[in-house]
Amino acid sequence: MTEPQPVVELRGITKRFPGVVANSDVNLTIRAGEVHAVCGENGAGKSTLMKILYGMQQPDEGTIAVNGEQVRLRNPQDAIRAGIGMVHQHFMLADNLTVRENILLGAEGLHGIGRRAKARIDELAEQTGLNADQDALLESLGVADRQRVEIIKVLYRGAKIVILDEPTAVLVPQEVEALFETVRSMQRQGFTFIFISHKLDEVRAIADTVTVIRRGTTVGTADPKAISSRELAEMMVGSELPSPETRESTVTDRAVLRVTDLRLAAEGSTRAVLDDISFTVHAGEVLGIAGVEGNGQTELVETIMGMRRATGGTVELVEADGKARDLTRLGTLARREAGIGYIAEDRTRHGLLLTQPLWANRILGYQTREPVSKGQLLDIAGARRDTERIVADYDVRTPGIEVPAAALSGGNQQKLVVGRELSGDPVLLIASHPTRGVDVGAQALIWEQIRVARHEGLAVLLISADLDELIGLSDTIRVMLRGRLVSEADPATVTPQELGSAMTGAEEAA
Ligand SMILES: Nc1ncnc2c1ncn2[C@@H]1O[C@H](COP(=O)(O)OP(=O)(O)O)[C@@H](O)[C@H]1O
Ligand SMILES: [Mg+2]
């Protein structure tokens, strides 16, 4: 059998940003009809390479050939004309438009709003398994369907080569399986996929070929079925990985966070977004909250942090002497000052000021405390010194502490946030999706830091959509469904599939 033709050949691609070489002499060959995984740590340069292939960024050096012919992709329109489409890591959809409007938005020649467009969208909806009408407002769709809309958008424009940038980061296992089914069936129809991921089991499940990128350079290309996950992981991080540690409980009977009958009504309605939530987190304990996004987890965290006002119930922090301190009426800063570290779900909205230098981000939320403030004044030198410490201790890859947070990759931004939130001896850490969209290296580091802090007596409330993370870190898991804590699982024995069923309420129905 002859090898299928290369449909895309990237040769010697180099892309520099101020202070960072994002891609350095990268070579990548994609063959017709394959699913080609591109793997690498956070900040390795995967998204940059894909943006170059999608015409969103221009390489400083190197060439791109599509179907054997050298091309210049000056913008996404050029890429689309060459048959290349990209589904971004962060969806680029408008909530207040319908499914159809989102698909047609920006498409060449909007003349198609007629019957032909509708029929074509129906066909693509069927192919991708979209569970929504094309007249439905996007805001009524779940994450998996939003992703399908993104994919349809790309197919509608005629893409034959589809780039999926970390598509599974936002999905639960059942949804990942559905996505893979779609990918496989489209592969049979002749589509080619470039699949960006750092989850090795997924790469093994879906990819025909895997190319590993480390620190901007191609490390190698392999058949994922012929090499072990460990070998793959070592290609990615370039060193021996620590063995998975054995579980050792550090849970004490000293309560730290006590939430009692917490209620939150939806704005302008009596529907409960949080419905009589009660739980306790103890010193040395990680309490994990599992749930499909949109079941009240975000509101729970924001109510505990004082960003939303509870309509009933209490949030108390129990001090070392056993006295409970009621936080229910306090603002966010006061709650932080009481000893709560907070890793926000969306670091770019609540965790960081992207345009500000790293050292200024060290001050966020800590402006009243040492070492970044002295008396009533900010201590800029102290903030700078402590930022240098975090950069070193948490392996934040950056050209320096003066660069804006925006210049860091997501994983390095997150390491900065985690380092800051574990500074100043918190008694409680609220960790909301602490490793979302982060590579194996950064993830391992963040997990390790949370474990160390727990060992030293930190109480942790962990909210995550990553079931491996929940199972790996938690001492107890509670499942949240429609604003209530509905069931409890033992992380030592529960499987991701069982958790997934509890999360979707399949268990309740059964
Ligand atoms: N627009 C940009 N400006 C400056 N630096 C960038 C930009 N985009 C990416 N980088 C840097 O390039 C490197 C690679 O980033 P990226 O391609 O997003 O990695 P990955 O997708 O593998 O996580 C990172 O160090 C990141 O900070
Ligand atoms: Mg990326």
Automatic annotation (TrEMBL):
It is a peripheral membrane protein. Keywords: ATP-binding, Cell membrane, Membrane, Nucleotide-binding, Repeat, Translocase, Transport. It comes from the Bacteria. One of its GO terms (cellular component) is plasma membrane. It is found in: Cell membrane. Its main location: membrane. Pfam families: ABC_tran. InterPro entries: AAA+_ATPase, ABC_carbohydrate_import_ATPase, ABC_transporter-like_ATP-bd, ABC_transporter-like_CS, P-loop_NTPase. GO terms for molecular function: ATP binding; ATP hydrolysis activity. The keyword Cell membrane applies. Residues 8-240, 257-507 form the ABC transporter domain. This is Sugar ABC transporter ATPase. It comes from Amycolatopsis bartoniae.
